[in-house]
Write a structure and sequence with these properties.
mainly alpha; 72% helix; 0% strand
Length: 177
């Protein structure tokens, strides 16, 4: 679980950034990043050391992306719920989540990380099938993880709403760490 905290800390996500990251544009523009990064690294074949420029741009965009869009007008959509569920996942020590969500999320995160191995190998030895299959597989597994985050968020909201016995508005549902 320490890797979660390290990743979160490296992105310097505060309340405002998390709110902005819940914008669907932020979520959907992150989806192709693994494939774009693989392509940027592969570009060294054509442009040599100049490939550091597209690689650097992808890294900068990864950091700027959660800050680039305004907070969403509504969080009643799949993409916003991904971000809200991810906050719940990252805060699971302070606010426990159902065991089945924790085990699925951990398994999918691990599988996605393992899928990066063929990508790294393929990029190192310039073997395109491994490189792009690894990037694609890691991306698909990350999307599956995202879907589980929506499920987690919805389940946690149902539990809280039932406990409160009060209707919940989308604005009231933004989880705070």
């Amino acid at each position: 679980m320490k890797i979660d905290k390290a990743i979160s800390a490296s992105m310097a996500m505060d309340e405002t950034t998390w709110d902005r990251h819940a914008n669907p544009w932020s979520v959907y523009t992150r989806v192709p990043l693994m494939m774009v990064l693989a392509f940027a690294i592969w570009s060294r074949v054509w442009i040599g050391w100049w490939a550091l420029l597209p690689v650097g741009l992808v890294i900068v965009w990864t950091f700027l992306n959660p800050r680039a869009f305004p907070p969403p007008a509504s969080i009643d959509n799949w993409a916003s719920k991904v971000t809200l569920g991810e906050r719940l996942w990252l805060n699971r020590r302070a606010r426990p989540i159902p065991r089945h969500h924790a085990s699925w999320a951990l398994g999918l995160s691990t599988a996605s990380a393992v899928a990066l191995l063929p990508m790294v190998y393929g990029l190192a030895v310039l073997e395109p099938f491994s490189a792009f299959l690894g990037a694609l597989l890691a991306s698909v597994l990350k999307l599956w993880f995202c879907d589980r985050m929506v499920w987690l968020y919805d389940d946690m909201q149902r539990t809280e709403t039932a406990a409160d016995s009060a209707p919940s508005t989308p604005e009231r549902r933004i989880p705070r760490s």
